[in-house]
Amino acid sequence: QVQLVESGGGLVQAGGSLRLSCAASGSIFSINAMGWYRQAPGKQRELVAAITSGGRTNYADSVKGRFTISRDNRKNTVYLQLNTLKPEDTAVYYCNALKLGRESWGQGTQVTVSS
Q: How many CB atoms lie within 10 A of CB 34?
């Protein structure tokens, strides 16, 4: 089982930046991919960005060019750099790990962007 702990959320003005971190522990061997999802009030959870064990990345169209996902394998940590934030980026951001077809989720971290 993989345990995930997110950090780095907060309140920021539009145009600002944040960096989210997700530390993985437990059975982290053979994690295939990790990603960030978000869920705004009244909306479904959506994929924001993902990165495979080989370093391939994938982004939602709404964040391309503004957000960057990266991973530090030595620290078992995945990061999400959020730049040029918009009020519509306000949501709870969740870290996700996919291992052998099974998903693990973190507890979420709130990102609030004021206009």
A: 26
